[in-house]
Specification:
Layout: H1 8-42, E1 47-55, E2 59-67, E3 73-79, H2 80-89, H3 93-104, H4 120-142, E4 149-155, E5 159-165, E6 175-179, H5 180-188, H6 194-209
Antiparallel strand pairs: 1-2, 2-3, 4-5, 5-6
Helix pairs in contact: 1-2, 1-3, 4-5, 4-6
């Protein structure tokens, strides 16, 4: 017969875990509320609602729906970390959130969340047929084709990645890589996956532009 004993360490660990979970739930509730209030302030004539879900990889994720008076609805998703960063550090988090809906509302009909792939074959078809071609085209449109490199690679920790970079930079950081599963997650939240890689490329440019130039030797 196996006897289970409870030690002070086990009790403390369980209590700490419960406290962390309570804090997380409070944070999720606060961000859900703040997100609705923020969007409502930008779309006063619309109805705003939303929900929070738990993703197996990315943790808490939020989706908010903005419904216009004509009944057309537009849905966009956000990660917990980016909402938290927006409300803590952005000068205007409401404007940042609403910017994604402005693009969606250019379509006259409702834009709901895409249907998630049901298996690996569907995921590969979505990636190869929609997401990757869009990202490659967006990179070429944003930067000079003669200066940019883009392609696929296999990262030992993150698996398949889309990478792009500037071959002209021989020293320092010159390549940005994004896991394909992260690009897929953004696509399924009605977010432009190309923004991830393009933002990373602009950071590379900024890093090199801010590097101190070498002083000529006397």
């Amino acid at each position: 017969m196996l006897f289970m004993t409870t030690t002070p360490d086990n009790v403390n660990e369980r209590e700490e875990a419960e406290q962390q979970n309570e804090k997380l739930q409070e944070l999720v509730k606060a961000l859900h509320h703040n997100g609705i209030v923020a969007l409502q302030s930008q779309f006063e004539g619309c109805k705003v609602d939303g929900q929070a879900n738990q993703h197996s990889v990315y943790g808490p994720m939020f989706t908010f729906r903005v419904t216009k008076e004509d009944g057309n609805a537009y849905v966009c998703g956000f990660f917990l970390r980016e909402l938290l960063n927006a409300f803590q550090n952005s000068p205007n988090p409401a404007l940042w959130m609403s910017s994604f809906y402005v693009d969606l509302m250019k379509v006259p009909e409702s834009v709901l969340l895409p249907r998630p792939p049901q298996n690996e074959e569907e995921a590969k078809k979505m990636m190869d047929g929609q997401i990757l071609p869009h990202c490659f085209n967006a990179i070429k449109e944003e930067f000079d084709a003669d200066e940019i490199y883009s392609g696929l690679d296999l990262h030992p920790q993150h698996g398949p990645v889309l990478e792009a970079g500037f071959p002209k930079y021989k020293d320092g950081n010159n390549v940005c890589a994004m896991p394909l599963h992260l690009l897929l997650a953004h696509h399924l939240m009605n977010r432009d996956p190309a923004d991830l890689i393009i933002d990373g490329l602009y950071r590379i440019l900024e890093e090199h532009e801010n590097e101190p130039s070498e002083q000529p030797q006397a």
